[in-house]
Structure formats: structure tokens, C-alpha cells
Design brief:
It is found in: Periplasm. By secondary structure, the chain is an alpha/beta fold. It has 15 helices and 10 strands.
Length: 357
């Protein structure tokens, strides 16, 4: 039976609308799929961005230091802290002991210094030793010079004199040992506490004190040029040798363990850079603190800054702690091993931990 032209037209029109509807449905599905993919991609990018920002957000650390220490200043200047995600701010003090004491008022987050102030701090607060920076060699000991007024010709002449010491430092211990080696005691002299070597320099020139222990090439040169003053001896002629440690609050160790580990990583790289690039380090200290380049180069010749923890470090701490307890400087005794936490040093530089208390 033949199909009429009218029927053919209806059929073609129906097929057209069916095809059009099918295209719209498929197009909608495709758009929905693309939209979902785009949304998922955007969400993923946003999540990754947040994660990246979290990973890259630097940890802010206030680090106690002195103006003439080349290692920490180089770590900041050369970007070693930044490399390990630390936004470091150096808080400068007259002595390392002042920097250690600043931990108590949270002015600094990490500090370093000699055994004496370190032990004093950990005996009184929630702090722990996380690494050593080395112990004295004979060359290091020679850098501590004893300057006296001209009328003092021998150690025994110190009896009845006024002797300078920097408050909170090991110098009171050094005086005790030095005087004992020459038949004198602390009761035979008057110790005058001062805040820094510049203050001691002025006091010695004015005759307000009679003897001062000094270290650092720039400061030694200053005392050598002073009128009416002479060098009597140096610390290498005594039995005193000191260690140096790094100390951090227990709270920082608990809450930001990765920051503590990264601090040690940066510090080790900086200490190696200092040894390998003395001229550049001398330029850094001249630029930042105006220390004469020749003074920095002299100091670098005997620099013994190594991020580690050795038997020598532990023996130095033990010996110093015994003295401090026996003389009432540490009022409440404690277990030294409880105040030494080497897990971060062992993670970062395992070969540098040669003794575990």
C-alpha cells in the first residue's frame, strides 16, 4: 500500500524531533560530566593548595645569640634556616648566658651556651639539651685571656682585689678553680658581676675592677690596647675546659618536633659552610655587626663548632654539674640523663651521636 506524501512528512518531522531530543539529552549528560570533573578538579586543586601552604608555612623561631657568633648569623644570612622551613629571628644578647635565661620569659625559643648556664637552666625549668656544639680544645682555651691592672704581677697578687665576672656565665667557676690552683679562695677576693665584656672593659680602665677574663679576637685586641692593663695568663694554663650545648623548651620539643630536627639540619649545614668559607663569613659579620674582618678570621681559625653529642660532652656536663651541686648553685639535684633528648640529633645526624646517656 502506497504511503501518502502527508504521512511521509509527519514521519520525517517525528524523526527530526526525536533526534533533536536525543542530542539534547546527550549534550546535557556530557555537560554534567564535564561540570562534575571540573568541580572535582577545582576541589582537588584547592585541597592541594591548602596542603602546600601548610607544608610551606615557615615555623617562626626566636634564636638567642651573641653578635660575634658566626654560625647562626651565617645560617640566617645564607638561607639555611629558610631552606628547612624556619623563619629565624636572632635575638642578640651580651652573653650566651643572657640568651639562655631569656628562655624563661619566652623571649627566645632556642639558645646555646656553656655547660654552666645550660645546667642552671635545665635544673630550674622545663628545658632539655638537644645537642652539643663541641668541647674546648687547648686552642679554644687559649682564647680566654686574663687581663689585669699593671700592678698585678702574679696570681697571688689578686688577693683582696676586685675580680670581674659576667653574670650567669661559667666565669665564677673559672675564678674559683684558678684561685685554688694558686692557694687562694673566693673568700680572698671580691667578685663583681657585670653584664658584658664592654662593661668590664670600662670598669678595668677606671680601676673599678682589677682583673677580667676576655675572649674573642676583637675584644682581646681592645683590652691589649688599653693603657695600664696587661695579660697575666690564659685559660689553657688552668685545668678548666668547658663544653657548649644547645637547649630548647620541652614544649617546643613536644609540639614542633620537626622544627627541632630541621633546626639541627640547618645549623649543621651552616657550621660546615663557616669552616669552608671563612672570607665570606668575615664579610657577613662585617656587614651585619661591623666586626673587623681580621678579627673574624682569627676567631674562625680556632672555631670548634660541631653539631654532635660525644662522651666528652657528657663528661663535661657531669663535671660541671657536680661542681654546681656541691657549691649550692644548683639547689635541687636532678638526673642529667633526664635532661638530654637526642632523638632529633640521632634522626638528622646519627653518626654524630657517639654516646647515649
Amino acid at each position: 500500500m502506497a504511503t501518502s506524501p502527508k504521512t511521509k512528512a509527519k514521519t520525517v518531522l517525528s524523526l527530526f524531533w526525536l533526534f533533536t531530543a536525543l542530542l539534547l539529552v546527550l549534550s546535557g549528560c556530557g555537560s554534567a560530566k564535564e561540570g562534575a570533573q571540573a568541580a572535582a578538579k577545582a576541589a582537588g586543586a584547592g585541597s592541594a593548595g591548602v596542603q602546600d601552604r601548610q607544608e610551606q608555612a615557615p615555623v617562626k623561631l626566636n634564636i638567642a645569640d651573641i653578635s660575634t657568633n658566626p654560625v647562626l648569623r651565617t645560617a640566617v644570612s645564607k638561607g639555611f634556616f629558610e631552606k628547612y622551613g624556619i623563619e629565624a629571628k636572632l635575638v642578640t644578647f651580651a652573653t650566651p648566658a643572657e640568651g639562655i635565661n631569656s628562655l624563661f620569659i619566652k623571649q627566645a625559643d632556642i639558645a646555646w651556651g656553656a655547660d654552666f648556664p645550660i645546667l642552671n637552666a635545665v635544673s630550674k625549668g622545663e628545658f632539655a639539651i638537644i645537642a652539643s656544639t663541641g668541647t674546648s680544645t687547648e686552642q679554644n682555651a687559649k682564647q680566654w685571656k686574663l687581663f689585669v691592672r699593671d700592678e698585678i704581677g702574679k696570681p697571688e697578687d689578686l688577693k683582696g682585689k676586685k675580680l670581674s665576672f659576667l653574670r650567669g656565665t661559667f666565669l665564677s667557676y673559672l675564678w674559683d678553680e684558678y684561685l685554688a690552683e694558686h692557694g687562694l679562695a673566693l673568700d680572698d677576693v671580691k667578685l663583681i658581676g657585670q653584664g658584658g665584656s664592654d662593661e668590664a672593659y670600662i670598669a678595668l680602665k677606671k680601676g673599678e675592677v682589677d682583673a677580667v677574663w676576655v675572649s674573642g679576637a676583637a675584644m682581646v685586641a681592645k683590652f691589649e690596647a688599653a693603657e695600664g692593663v696587661r695579660q697575666l695568663t690564659d685559660m689553657s694554663q688552668t685545668k678548666v675546659r668547658i663544653g657548649s650545648q644547645i637547649v630548647a623548651p620541652e614544649a617546643l620539643i613536644r609540639e614542633r618536633p620537626e622544627a627541632v630536627a630541621n633546626f639541627l639540619r640547618a645549623l649543621d649545614e651552616a657550621s660546615r659552610f663557616v669552616k669552608e668559607n671563612p672570607q665570606e663569613v668575615a664579610d657577613i659579620l662585617y656587614k651585619e655587626v661591623k666586626q673587623p674582618r681580621e678579627s673574624t678570621l682569627k676567631d674562625l681559625e680556632v672555631l670548634n663548632w660541631n653539631v654532635d653529642f660525644t662522651e666528652a660532652a657528657y663528661e663535661s656536663l657531669t663535671r660541671q654539674k657536680k661542681y654546681m651541686v656541691e657549691n649550692g648553685i644548683i639547689e635541687k639535684d636532678f638526673e642529667l640523663k633526664d635532661k638530654i633528648k637526642l632523638e632529633f640529633l640521632r634522626e638528622v645526624l646519627p653518626d654524630r651521636v657517639t654516646l647515649t646517656p
